[in-house]
Amino acid sequence: MDLLAEMLAVGGVRGALGARIEGAEPWSLNWTDIPGAVFYALTSGAAWLGVPGHEPLQLLPGDVVLLPTGADHVISSAPRVLTPKKCDSEAAAHARLTGEVLRFGTGEVQSRLLAATYSHDPAVLTQVLARLPQVVHLSADTNGNCLDDSAKLLARELAYPQLGSAVVLDRLVDILLVQFLRVWLSRRPEETKETWLGVLDDPLLTAALTKLHADPAHPWTTELLAAELGVSRATLTRRFVATTGQAPGAYLTQWRMDLAARRLRDTDDTLDTVARSVGYTSAYAFSRAFSRARGQAPGRYRVTARVAA
């Protein structure tokens, strides 16, 4: 099983928007109330990224940066710009459709960036991006040709939209995220240890999650899982908590509730069917567990989730 692919697919992580940005000094852009993650790739010039609680970060050509939780930020021609212009999401969407550029400032263009955003399925609480640092930066000397090539393809498609461009752009943005996570995992292993991606750098945890994800309905216990992996219960629990922030049992329960929430919203399966699919022998036991985890009975959740969708 490809765990990263599984997590992104079940988590509903999707590229939602791409735009080209040009900055003519002095320029600045303020982006707040972002519902998902934000990605920038600087293709020429220089820029500064300001995030509350962090020192200003200078971006140089070839640098890429991900804000996994969509932190409020300012991106500009100089650090600590006092009067940034608020991002217009509708203008960004229009620029994507027409191939136009979002231009800030009035002088000669000095900086060029690509921007993308990512959304995820609100029904799924187990998300790859949720426990990453607020700012993840890869400088040009670490990002590798795959990321460069994808960014160039994205820029070309944004500049010259054609038939099917919406599909191409969304797929390219999805590819950019996977390539970014691959490079970050390979280059910054210490930083990944307390994130979900740290699972992929630990053979024991990779094997453990593969078993849980491959058969979530199996009557797993920490003891049974540890025995199948040939380690002690204490060792498995310690490594699991250190990386995912949860004990194996808690992680499995949350994953089962994620799968159940999606099935409740997206299908008309009975509660008995949903319960059995995630390892509960009765609808009653499942309803109790789901209500504790989500604060709503399964039937009520089905109605409210469909209305929200």
| Mean of pLDDT | 89
Q: Briefly note the structural class of the backbone.
A: alpha+beta
Query: How many individual helices?
Result: 12
The backbone outline, from C-alpha atoms, is globular
> What does the largest sheet look like?
6 strands, mixed
Low-confidence stretches at least 5 residues in length (pLDDT < 50)?
none
Can you give the helix content as a percent range? 40-55%
Order of strands, widest sheet: 9-1-10-3-6-11
Distance between the termini: 29 Å
Our Rg estimate from Cα atoms comes to: 22 Å
Order of helices and strands: HEEEEEEEEHEEEHHHHHHHHHH
| Count of individual beta strands | 11
**Strand residue percentage:** 15-25%
Descriptive terms for the model:
309 residues; 12 helices; globular; alpha+beta; six-stranded mixed beta sheet; five-stranded mixed beta sheet; 11 strands; 46% helix
Task: Please describe what this structure looks like.
The structure is a single chain. With 309 residues, the protein is an alpha+beta fold. Helix 10 (271-277) crosses helix 11. The model has no long low-confidence stretch (mean pLDDT 89). The chain has helices at residues 3-10, 89-98, 144-159, 165-187, 189-192, 203-214, 222-229, 233-244, 248-266, 271-277, 283-294, 298-308; strands at 14-24, 28-31, 37-44, 47-50, 57-59, 64-67, 73-76, 85-86, 102-104, 109-119, 136-138. The two termini are 29 Å apart. Strand 4 and strand 5 form a beta hairpin. The chain has twelve helices and eleven strands. Strands 9-1-10-3-6-11 form a six-stranded mixed sheet. It has a five-stranded mixed sheet with strand order 5-4-7-2-8, with no helix packed on it.
